[in-house]
């Protein structure tokens, strides 16, 4: 007689355990175990990944804070990673690979190298992962599913317009303390500042340009170098507030802190206090917590419905200064401190 499949399974299991298990009981147990495994898979907490440029920049600290809060509210598990320094593309690639392997539904990333990261992002998207850029667009921008960010060109344009009006016709000697080559956010802010000020690249009023990677110590060194090259600098554009505070330190060491106009971008709480104290004349405030919150909500929606976020979402920018100028809309530092990176 041909043995019943239930008897085969029962005998095999019983031999392994030296116990004879009734066939019907074994099949029931296997069905229960199978259903339990499926239920566990169905109810596993969806994961969302956050990859920032560094863990130390206050901007990204706030971004992570926003992501964590939103993930808890949406019932997601947050995985986070960052480069060791601004520009650490290798660490971001590794983070993407690790997150995809861990089964994340979506990845939120502020790319350090906006071109070099694209192949790793493509692999993640090909694996079915939703990828959203925060703050900094990739090159090309459509390498990610969506972008939630400040209009960085507008942020630069606002401080350029402010600086032009504040100079009130005084001939400008401009230093630009930039980010680094090949990073879109830096180029957009730089280009926006030039447009707002009403000059083009190569204009003789731009007497010095140095890269800072958004770092305070590098900002100080860059300003020192510029002062050696052009001691009569009277306007300083900075990529962010750490670079601005580095520039202020260098200017103060030369006794120039009172007669040089510094403008910047970020609007963090520390930077806004620097505007309040007069170290920075004006800054364009952006909102990383909002970027992260919107990004996490988009991943949660994708996990629930399969619907992917697309296109660009402008998360807003506000000029902050206590010395308003005609024709440039701004809020004061009281507003800035109430909303710093909110």
CATH homolog superfamily of the largest domain: Response regulator
Count of folded domains: 2
The largest sheet has its strands arranged as: 2-1-3-4-5-11
Instruction: List low-confidence stretches.
Output: 1-42
The percent of residues in helical segments reads 40-55%
What is the count of helical runs? 12
**Number of E strands:** 12
CATH class of the largest domain: Alpha Beta
What would you call the shape? elongated
Question: Which series of helices and strands comes N to C?
Answer: HHEHEHEHEEHEHEHEHEHEHEEH
Strand content: 15-25%
Mean pLDDT equals: 89
Cα separation of the termini: 76 Å
Major sheet summary line: 6 strands, parallel
Radius of gyration: 27 Å
What structural class results from the helix and strand content? alpha/beta
Description:
This protein folds into two domains: 47-150 and 288-309, 3-Layer(aba) Sandwich (Rossmann fold), CATH 3.40.50; 152-285 and 319-339, Response regulator (Rossmann fold). It contains twelve helices and twelve strands. The chain has helices spanning 5-17, 23-43, 58-74, 89-101, 118-126, 152-167, 184-197, 216-229, 241-253, 269-277, 288-305, 333-339, and strands at 47-52, 77-82, 106-109, 130-134, 146-149, 174-178, 206-211, 235-238, 261-266, 282-285, 311-314, 318-320. The chain has a six-stranded parallel sheet, with helices on both faces. It is elongated and about 60 Å long. The termini are far apart. Residues 1-42 have low confidence and may be disordered.
């Amino acid at each position: 007689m041909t043995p019943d499949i239930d008897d085969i399974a029962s005998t095999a299991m019983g031999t392994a355990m030296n116990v004879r298990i009734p066939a019907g009981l074994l099949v029931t147990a296997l069905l229960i175990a199978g259903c339990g495994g499926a239920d566990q898979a169905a109810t596993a907490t969806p994961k969302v990944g956050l990859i920032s440029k560094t863990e130390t920049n206050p901007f990204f600290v706030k971004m992570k804070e926003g992501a964590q809060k939103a993930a808890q509210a949406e019932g997601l598990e947050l995985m986070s990673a960052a480069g060791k320094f601004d520009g650490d593309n290798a660490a971001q690639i590794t983070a993407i690979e690790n997150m995809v392997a861990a089964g994340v539904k979506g990845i939120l990333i502020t790319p350090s190298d906006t071109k070099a990261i694209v192949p790793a992002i493509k692999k993640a998207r090909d694996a079915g992962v939703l990828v959203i850029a925060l703050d900094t667009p990739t090159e090309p921008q459509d390498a990610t599913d969506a972008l939630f960010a400040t209009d960085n060109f507008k942020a630069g344009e606002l401080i350029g317009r402010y600086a032009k009006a504040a100079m009130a016709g005084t001939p400008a000697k401009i230093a630009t303390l930039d980010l680094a080559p090949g990073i879109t956010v830096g180029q957009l802010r730089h280009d926006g500042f030039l447009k707002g000020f009403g000059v083009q690249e190569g204009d003789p009023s731009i007497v010095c340009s140095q890269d800072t990677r958004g770092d305070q110590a590098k900002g100080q060194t860059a300003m020192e170098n510029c002062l050696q090259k052009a001691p009569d600098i009277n306007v300083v554009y900075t990529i962010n507030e750490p670079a601005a505070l580095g520039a202020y330190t260098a200017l103060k060491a030369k006794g120039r802190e009172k007669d040089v106009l510094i403008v910047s971008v970020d609007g963090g709480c520390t930077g806004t206090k620097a505007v309040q104290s007069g170290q920075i004349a004006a800054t364009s405030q952006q909102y990383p917590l909002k970027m992260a919150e919107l990004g996490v909500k988009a991943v949660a929606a994708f996990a629930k419905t399969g619907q992917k976020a697309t296109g660009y979402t402008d998360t807003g920018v506000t000029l902050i200064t206590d010395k308003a100028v005609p024709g440039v809309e701004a809020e004061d530092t009281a507003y800035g401190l109430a909303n710093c990176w909110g």
